[in-house]
Each structure stands twice: as structure tokens, then as C-alpha cells.
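Form 12-C: Joint structure prediction
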Amino acid sequence: MSTEAVLYDHPGPRAKTRNNVLTAIFGVALLALLYWVYAKFDEKHQWDGRFWEPFTQSTTWTQYILPGLAGTLGAAAVAMVLSLLFGLLFSVGRLSDHWWLRVPSGVVVEFFRAVPLLLLMFFIFFGVPFLTQRPMSVFWAVVIGLTLYNGSVLAEAFRAGIRAVPSGQSEAAYAIGMRKNQVMREILIPQAARAMLPVIVSQLVVLVKDTALGYIIAYNELLQLGVNNLGANFGIVVQAAMVAAAIYIVVNASLTALAGWLERRTRRAGRAPRRAATPAGVVEPQG
Amino acid sequence: MNVFSDPANVDAYVTGFLWILKLTVAAAVGALVLGVLLAAMRVSPVPVLRGFGTAWVNIFRNTPLTLIIFFCYFGLFTALGFKLSDDINVNNYWLGVVGLSVYTAAFVCEAIRSGINTVPAGQAEAARAVGMSFRQTLTMIVLPQAGRAVVAPLGSIFIALAKNSTIVGTIGLVEASSAMKDLINANGDAVIPIFLVFAGTFALVLIPVGYAFGWLANRLAVKR
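Section 2 - Result
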């Protein structure tokens, strides 16, 4: 581990003994902590078989969990495609030479990055129907909210990526007579996109997690169907929440692993611009 | 802007944002304390602690905050009888703080760990070579450099925390977003002004804070 190399010298015989003693002490302490948590749940009989029994029935999965997961992944997938378009459009807009494109793009991106997603969804779901005099579909309320927020985050990431392409690339392109439009489309965006691929996949994790906000406006996703409805129908909220959390963790950990693999792959092939490290704070811990 | 000439509506607005402020401050303290502890665990030479820190980060970073807050209420409070106050609002507030803290702590931990990783190994090796003790190396060499690299990510984590605190509305605390929802439902003719006031408040506070953190991080950055 690299952190060990920074903070700790390679352990000698004394340090090794000390580490072993500490391992034993903290091992016992952690086991005690875990047992305490287990006992707290046991006190309320939460580990009883009857609470877990519904998960052995196929209807639990076909009627609650799998449709919920489909709702989550569906909204995340549609929102991802739209966010990519939104992000591309506004990152190029923000890099434009014309102030009347650059300034509005900047305002839109900064605004949607600063407004809580839940506030946005409430406005789209409860407010917009008053304006259009038509009911708002809950799916689109979730997807539009996700698109505006994540699209803005991606716009900033793309902008950083495009700016990280070495200036020699665009200079060379201009020198051989390419137009601004061509330089952007054929030189800058393809290189930036490759460098930004891991960021895009990491943003997918944020998207998948954020679909859970749809629960608050009654969109049928995993938290709504797999935890709220299932938990209420069988009286197994705690267990349903644990199962749903495990599903979210598996999905998101696989996406994170994919992002890591993509990052290693682009770095190894040396195709990514060297300075195109992920700009700090791009992948924000939004709910 | 007639909606906001009614004192009751102004009151809803103020109360909503006061909850957001209280949630953000309390959860920021909680997340910072927990996050530093977790980061210390993750960089320690004791494998058990490293494993615990890694497990915490992977579990809470990959679970939606809405689910965590939901669990705090329906799991900890309803099912397990974990009660923090007799007042229902205060109880929900503290449950929200617990949920926000354990979630945000995972991100704080990762920010601090990557901050420590930005310090080149040669720095600590040189410190040890001139005879500094572990404590001296940590407090005089590693942490001052790591602290500067941590400012920017911590800034965006706290900004996200302020926005995430709206999710505590799920468990019945009437914070800003729930207050806005109620106002919209009661005043269908003034949807746009209501949204602009609530969203504008967030934007007016959080955008300058974001730039301030960016400026600070730039100023403090270690030039390498």
C-alpha cells in the first residue's frame, strides 16, 4: 500500500510485534462492536426466520425487487444518455468564443449544480403541472431532474477534460487550416472523451444512487417497491432495506470497478492527455 | 412575489432553511470526526482496522442516502426503538444527522486518504532519515502538505452535504424542499417565484462558497 510507504517505515521486529498486538486488540474490539449490533437486532427478534422467509418466495422477487431494480436502472440509463448530451452541449457552450453563448451556459451549469436535486424534482413534479395544466409523469420528473443535475456536473467534467488536451493539438489543427468547429469535433472532443470515460462511468454510480430520490415522489424504483411496499406488506422493513442496500452496493461497486479498469486501460495505452486527471470534486457525493 | 407578503409563508421559508443550516452544521461536525477516524484506520498498519475502514467506505458510499435516511427512521427508530428525543421533530432531526454523518464520513475518509497519498513518499523518508519520530513526521511533514490537498475535495463534500440535507424531508422534517413543496401545492399561481426564491437561496449561498473553496485550495496548493 502506497499510504503505508508515506506514513510508516517498513516494520522491523518490534513494530511487527506491536502491529500483531494491535491487530489482536482491535480485532476483539471490532468483534465486540459487531456482536453488540447483532445483539441489538436480536433483542427485537429481527434475525428470526419469519422475517427472512419472504425472500425465499419467488413472488417477492418478481413482484417487488426485480421491477424495482428495473425502474432504478431504467431511469438511470435514460438519464445518463440525456445527461451526456446535456453535458456535451453545455461544456462546448461554456468554451465558446461568443459571450452570448458562454455566459448563459455558465449560468445554467452553475445554477443546476448548486440546487439540491430533490428541490428540482419537487418543482418538476409538483410545480410544472400548474404551469402546463397537464399532469407530469413521475418517470420524466425523475429523469429530467437527474439530467439537469448530472448533465451540469458532466458539463464541468467535459470542460476540464477539453481544456486538459495539450494546446499543441488545437494549434496544430488550426495550422493545417481546420475551422473552430472541426478542431472541437475532430481533435478536442475525441481526446477529451477518452480521458473522461472513467469520470462518466463514476457519474453513473451517482445517477443510480440518485434515482432513489424518486421514492420521495412515488416513482416505482427499488426503494419504493423493494423496501417501502415490500416492507409494509410483510412487516419486514429492516430486512428489505438490508437486501436493497446489498443490491445497490453490488451494482455500484461493479460500476466503480469498471471505472477503475477503464482508467488503468486508458493510462496504460498512453492515449489520454497526461494532465487530464479527474478535476477535484467532479464526482460529488450527491445522495 | 405576493406569496411572500404572507408572514406564514415567510416563516415556512425561514424555518425550512434553518433546519438545513442546523442539519448541515451538525452533520459536518459528525462526518469530519468520523471521517478522520476512518481515514486514520484506512492508513494504519493494522489490517483489521484497514478492513473496517474499507468496508465502511464501500458500504456507505455505494448506498443511496435516501435509503440510509429511510433506514434511520424505519429501521433504527421504528423497528429497533432507537430514540434520540421525545420531541418528534428533534428526534427526526437527530436521526437525519446520524444518517448524513455516516454517509458523508465515507467521502471525508476518502478525501483525507487521497490527500495523504498526494504527499510523495520521499518526504516522509527524508524526515525519517534526519531522525524525526513518527509523531514529528506526521505533524510536521505529512499532515501540513496533505491538509492543503484536502481543502478542495472537502469543500465540495460539504457543499454536497448542504444539498443532501434536503433528503431528511423524507422522514417528515419540514426543511426547505418540503416547505417549497407545500407552498407550491398551496399557491399554484405562483410556482415560478416560489421555486426561484428557494433554489435561488441555495444558489446564492453555495456558488460563492464553492468559489471560495476553489480560491483557497488554489492559494494553499503545494507547488510541485
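Section 3 - Comments
Chain B is about 80% helix and 0% strand. The mean pLDDT of chain B is 92.
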